[in-house]
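HUMAN:
Just now I want nothing more than another pair of eyes on a protein record. I would be glad if you read both lines and explained how they fit together. I have put the entry right below:
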Amino acid sequence: MSKQQAPVTGLYLDNPRVVDALAGGAAGGTTAVFVSPLEVLKTRLQTQARGSSKYLGGIHIYSGLKQIVAEEGPRGLYRGLGPQFVALLPNWAVYFTTYENLKAVMRKREGMPQPLQHMVSAVGAGAATLAVTNPLWVAKTRLQVQHMGNRPAGRPLYRNTFHCLATMARQEGVGRLYSGMGASAIGLSHVAIQFPVYEYFKSWLGERRRREQGEASVTDRLSTVDLIVASSGSKAIASSITYPHEVVRSQMHVRGLGPFDGFGLICKEIWQNEGLIGFYKGWATNMFRTVPAAAITFTSFELFARLLREAGARQRATKESRRQAVVSEVGG
C-alpha cells in the first residue's frame, strides 16, 4: 500500500539567479561596512571648495580621517552608511544577477568575441543597477557632506536615509533623486573596462594554475589570493581611467541638479578653475577605498556563491535521495 509523499521544498539554492542575488547582497553589505570611512573622506574631498585644505587626502588620508573624528566623533566616519548599506545590497544583488544572466545570453551569440560579451553584459547590468539605486547614492552623498559647513542656505539637515529621500522629493521634486544620473551613465564605461579585465585576469590565473599544478583550467576554483589579485587589479585600471566622472557626479548630487542638468557646466567650471587636476580631486583616497573594496566585494561574491552552490548541490542530492526512497517504497 502506498503512503502519502512528504512535500519537498523548492530548491532555491539550485537556482543560479537566487545564488547570484544572495551572494551579491552579502558581498555588498560586507563592503559597505569596511570602506565607509574612506567613502566619507573621498566625498568631502570631491566637494570641498577650491583652495580649501580642511580635509586632506593622498598621503595625508590619516589626517583627513582624524579631522572628521575631531569635529564629529567616530560616528562622522560612518555618515551615509545607512544609504550605502541600503544601496549596496540591492546594487550588487541586481548587478551580479543581471551580469551573469546577460553573460549566459551573450555566450549563445556565435562569433562575438568573449571580451565583447563581457563588456556588453557589464554595461547592461550597470544600466539596470543605476536605474534602481541612483536615489540611494544621492542620499548617501547629501548625508556625507551636510556637516561640512557649506550647505546651501535654508537646506534642512537630513536625519537618515529615508528622511533625506522624502525631504528631497517633497522640497525639490522626485527628479532630484536622479541627480548625477547622466554622469553615472558615462561612468558605465568603468564597468565596461573593469569586468572584461576581471574576467581576463581570472582566465589567466586559472590557466596558470593548470600549468603549474596540472589541474583543469576552471575559474570557479581559484584561490582567495587569486580572486583578490584579479579584482583589485581590474578595479585599479578601471578607476584610474574613469575617475573624473565621479567628481562631476558628486558635485551634481550636492547641488541638487537633475539627471543631466549641469553636467557640461560643472565640467567647464572644474576645467576653468582647477584644470585637469580638478577632475582628480580625492583620487588617491578613492584608490585606497575602491581597490580594497573591489577585492572585498568580488572575492566575497565568488566565495559566497561557491558556498551557496555547494549548498544547492546538497539540496539536489537530498531531493534525489527522497525521490529514490519513494520509488523504492512504491515499487516494494
